[in-house]
Protein 1
Amino acid sequence: MTRSTFNTDLDANYKAMQQFGISKQQAKFFLPPYEWYNDTIASWTKSKGLQLINYTPGTISHADYTTKDLKNYRSSEEILKSILSYEQSHEAGLNGFILLMHIGAGPGRPDKLYNKLPEIIKYLKTKGYSLVRVDNLLK
């Protein structure tokens, strides 16, 4: 990855988002592809005026893109159990947690975790959590 490629790709993404009325000012966060980055990517992100973010490890929510033909396949039920288990077994629970879900999981995914989102939200609200927009954290 070169800086030029990074900038070109990022600028193309903002141009595509602009077609949906999303400005760079409204989308200040950068979650790198595959959640992979290093100090160089972090520096380039900062130079573009963006905040690099990543999901909080500890659950397997990020496996919601997997399909049954993959070795790392996890069913939505397994993923849901990992989220609930983490919340129940850690003193801070999911406070401050960034839970990664792939809302665009492809047609090869038999059970979409995002279909369990109402159940997850209802559970978290009964435990006293409130959902916070990430962009509000920078204000």
Protein 2
Amino acid sequence: MPRGSEPKPLLLDTHYWIWLQEGASGRITTRLRHSIEEAAAAGRLLLSVISVWEFALLEAKGRIELTISCEEWVKSALATPGLVLAPLTPEIAIESTRLPEPFHGDPADRIIVATARRMGARLATRDVKMRDFALKHRIPVL
């Protein structure tokens, strides 16, 4: 990396955020963990606000079980040092409806990809559709 240039922000897909908070380190490669640590240290580790909605929906549907309230879990998870909550701006909302097709209709995935594009961020995801789309449209993906 050229001297004086900052690394691009790193945007976590919802599953990586959950796995980090739950200590599921076996699901995260050493390379990605290193990238996450670097981004967090620089205050450039991003999470889309839609991931909070997606997490709460998973919990409400019983797909995730918590020992504390959803609100407490989210509050604690958002306090992770170096993690920045990326807002859902009007520009990101509009961009999510205008992604080059084909892209699947999941609104959370569309907003996460649009957030990466708008914020010039690298995207950390295991979602095959999101990875394929990101690679095809020159969004750095880990």
